[in-house]
Design brief:
With 78 residues, the protein is α+β, with helices and mostly antiparallel strands. This is Reverse transcriptase/retrotransposon-derived protein RNase H-like domain-containing protein. It comes from Mycena citricolor.
Length: 78
C-alpha cells in the first residue's frame, strides 16, 4: 500500500537525485553528444539531460532530471 511513508521516501529520493554531486554540467566545448531523453504518460512528462563521455561514448554523465504533471487539458493531447 502506498502511504505517507512511501511519499516521504519518494520525495527524499527525488531530492537526492536532483542535488547529487554525481550530476555534471554539460560541457558545451566538448564534441561529445548531448542526450535529451523524454518519457510521457497521460498524467506526466519526465526527462533527463546527459552527455556522453568523449573517451567512451557508451558512458553517460547525467546533468539534470525533471518531471512535470499534466493538467486535465494537456493530458488529452495525443
Amino acid at each position: 500500500v502506498f502511504g505517507p511513508e512511501q511519499v516521504t521516501a519518494q520525495a527524499d529520493l527525488k531530492h537526492a537525485l536532483l542535488h547529487s554531486p554525481a550530476l555534471r554540467p554539460i560541457d558545451y566545448r566538448s564534441p561529445a553528444p548531448v542526450i535529451l531523453s523524454v518519457d510521457t504518460s497521460y498524467i506526466a512528462v519526465g526527462f533527463l539531460l546527459a552527455q556522453c563521455d568523449p573517451e567512451l561514448l557508451s558512458r553517460r554523465f547525467y546533468a539534470r532530471f525533471g518531471s512535470i504533471t499534466l493538467n486535465d487539458r494537456e493530458s488529452r493531447f495525443s
